[in-house]
Design a protein that fits this description.
The protein is of the alpha+beta class. The protein is about 35% helix and about 30% strand. The longest helix has 14 residues.
């Protein structure tokens, strides 16, 4: 995601939420990237759902955040995982 996209996301989050606020993350990662996302997000309770073929895993988690920057930091952390799809 580019800096412009992060800026738009920050603006949307600020306009649509009152803080603290709960936020739901959804990602799809190749199965080999599952350990990477678990390493990057050790404090979050991740729900996992493997694809029918087992090549991918859908990850969902909800957490309470104090501000939009905390949410953007999660997106930035996971953006380096190869093959991740951020929904």
């Amino acid at each position: 995601m580019s800096d412009a996209n992060y800026s738009r996301l920050k603006q949307l989050l600020e306009n649509q939420n009152t803080w603290p606020s709960k936020y739901v993350f959804k990602f799809v990662v190749p199965s080999q990237g599952l350990s990477d996302i678990k390493d990057l997000l050790p404090d979050h309770d991740l729900m996992e759902r493997p694809s029918r073929t087992g090549k991918y895993v859908a990850i969902t988690f909800t957490n309470e955040f104090q501000n939009s920057e905390e949410i953007i930091n999660v997106y930035k952390k996971v953006s380096n995982i190869e093959g991740i799809i951020q929904l």
